[in-house]
Amino acid sequence: MLTDTLLFYAFAALVLGGGILTITRRSAVHSAIALIVSLLGVAGLYLMQQAEFLFAVQIVLYVGGIMVLFLFVIMLVNLDQAALERQFNRQWLVGLIAAAVVGAQIGYFLYRGKAGFRIADIGAAAPAALGNTEALADKLFSEYLLPFEIASVLLLVAVIGSVVMAKKRI
Amino acid sequence: MHPVTTVHYLALSAALLLIGTVGVLTRRNIVIILMSIELISMP
Questions:
Q1: What residues in B contact A104, CB-CB < 8 Å?
Q2: What ranges make up the beta strands (E) of chain A?
Q3: Which residues on chain A are in Cβ contact (under 8 Å) with B39?
């Protein structure tokens, strides 16, 4: 129990520290690296919840996606010039106040509704005979086959559309 | 030390959402705004 608590706080510090560094660093490359740290922290939290599939997806999709974004930053943005410009816009004070108000609301509702959350008993709740990746695949390819295929067709349409839009002459 | 409960996770998600919101509202660089949106969508 103590190990779980310590791990949670370690991963939470990783997530929050990475997030804060992401929005405060001057260089976009540094922001991307901090975002990767944050995403890895979230992956660790998934692993603590015994969600191995989500852990793998988080690593492969998100961290991989951020790496692609990182490459875009290097290729497309003029980094030297962007670092010299002003980093925060003129409405930053209004933005901070708005975010603080939203935070106060969320905190208030969490505080008022604290009694509504029950501590889940992880060990007793789920039968661990089938791993959750297998269970997910079983559901996905039997019961939810049609939505799965529709989603794949949608992604195919997006890929073809981006190729059509990117090419001048086909 | 208290055991970790659902409230801990909710508080962490709320903090992450706020960090992302601040990033979207205050930064000027469009790539960093995109990363902040990613921060919002994580929890």
A1: none
A2: none
A3: 19, 22-23, 35, 38
